[in-house]
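Section 3.1: Structural characterization of target chains.
Under the original work plan, the team committed to producing a structural model for every single-chain target entering the pipeline before any wet-lab resources were allocated. The record below documents one such target. The sequence was received from the expression subgroup and is listed exactly as submitted; it comprises 155 residues.
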Amino acid sequence: MPRPKLHNVKYQPDLTPLLDVVFQLMTFFIMVSNFNQEVYDQRVRLPVAGSARPILNPAEDKLVLNIDETGRLLVASQALSADEALKHIRFQADLARLNADAAGITLSAGEPLPTTVILRADRQAPFTEVFRLIRACQDVNFSRFDLRALSAPTY
């Protein structure tokens, strides 16, 4: 009995569902990515302290201030003058008040802001300049401060 001739049938998989899933995964990971790393200026060389500990509460409202080796505030990789730094700190305080209002926290005049100021000062920064920025933060009602340091030297 002769065999029937098979036609050359080519099957091609439908890639549309696969592309849909890949696109959805990419969208998901972009949406949940943590973009807070952008505020950390890598030019700032942190001091070394043996008692440095990791961050305990990463979910709280934070303001990161990067201070270069001359004591100037770095914002978007640019060093600000003293007047510009004060304006930036006042602006950040206004934003913290708006965030508190949006979260349903009512703040009376003179009440401390619920934001933690994270100071990332270069190890060569003069203390007088760092203290001047701390005082400027206190003048606009920031009251919680964290100073970042390394627990071991990096080379």
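The CA atoms of residues 38 and 126 lie 25 Å apart.
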